[in-house]
């Protein structure tokens, strides 16, 4: 089976350390990050008082249902369902108590930096709303942030070529197109009929860039 599936309410309830643990990671065999759930009724802890100083982990808590009141380093945070609470400092003292019946809190943890930098596609997706609004300079500036961590990503350079062409920056567009094809030869196929690149299509360097895909 390509996916492992579990329902929170069907997970074993383990009463330990003053909370009701629902073992997500062990049940699903997750190895990339820590993940567990905690359930509780009004007044019960859904996150036991603790810090992560020994393990050095960052933790993200997601209130799936009900509501909880977090206290992080003495600061209270009211968290209805849908709230995300990220405790980035491992030494911070944290706990949470259910303030509604049927409260479930998911906890995700891992070592700082273990997940690597933000993926290039996240910056490209973030630029989409600017592109849809015709805000080409803003789209370009947003997507270009991906290059800080992914300087040779072909898909990023292709999108930057499109945004630059639309923004009236032909030199930048052609350079990004060239680098896109070097990074990912498939982009030459995308460019053949992409209207976003029409402003630079008649430039001889456009055809040269596409021809170069045969040798990359």
Task: Tell me about this structure.
The chain is an alpha+beta fold and 216 residues long. It has two domains: 8-110, Jelly Rolls, CATH 2.60.120; 120-215, Serine Threonine Protein Phosphatase 5, Tetratricopeptide repeat (Alpha Horseshoe). It is built from seven helices and ten strands. The strands form two sheets. It has a six-stranded antiparallel β-sheet, with no helix packed on it. Strands 4-9-6-7 form a four-stranded antiparallel β-sheet, with no helix packed on it. α2 (120-132) runs antiparallel to α3, α4 runs antiparallel to α5 and α5 runs parallel beside α7. The protein starts with 13 loop residues before the first strand and ends in a 5-residue tail after the last helix.
Give a brief rundown of this model.
The chain has seven helices and ten strands.
Tell me the count of domains: 2
> What name is given to the CATH topology of the largest domain?
Jelly Rolls
* Uncertain segments: none
Q: Per the principal axes of the C-alpha atoms, what is the gross shape? A: elongated
DSSP strand content? 25-35%
Major β-sheet annotation: 6 strands, antiparallel
How many β-strands, per DSSP?
A: 10
- Helix and strand composition category: alpha+beta
How much helix, percentage-wise, in residues? Answer: 25-40%
Distance from N terminus to C terminus (CA atoms, Å) equals: 38 Å
What Rg do the Cα atoms give? 24 Å
Quickly give the CATH architecture of the largest domain.
Sandwich
Order the strands across the largest sheet as they lie in space: 1-2-3-10-5-8
């Amino acid at each position: 089976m390509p996916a492992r599936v579990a329902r929170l309410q069907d997970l074993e309830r383990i009463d330990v350390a003053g909370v009701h643990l629902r073992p997500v990671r062990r049940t699903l065999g997750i190895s990339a990050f820590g993940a567990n759930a905690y359930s509780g009724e009004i007044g019960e802890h859904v996150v036991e008082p603790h810090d992560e100083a020994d393990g050095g982990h960052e933790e993200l808590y997601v209130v799936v249902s009900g509501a909880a009141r977090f206290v992080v380093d003495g600061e209270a945070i009211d968290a209805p369902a849908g709230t995300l609470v990220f405790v980035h400092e491992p030494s911070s003292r944290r706990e949470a108590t259910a303030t509604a019946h049927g409260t479930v809190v998911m906890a995700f943890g891992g070592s700082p930096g273990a997940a690597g930098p933000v993926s290039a596609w996240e910056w490209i997706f973030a630029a989409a709303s600017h592109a849809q609004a015709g805000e080409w300079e803003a789209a370009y500036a947003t997507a270009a942030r991906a290059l800080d961590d992914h300087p040779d990503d072909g898909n990023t350079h292709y999108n930057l070529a499109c945004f630059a062409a639309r923004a009236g920056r032909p030199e930048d567009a052609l350079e990004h197109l060239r680098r896109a094809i070097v990074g990912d030869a498939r982009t030459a196929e995308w460019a053949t009929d992409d209207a976003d690149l029409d402003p630079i299509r008649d430039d001889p360097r456009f055809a040269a860039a596409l021809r170069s895909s045969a040798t990359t």
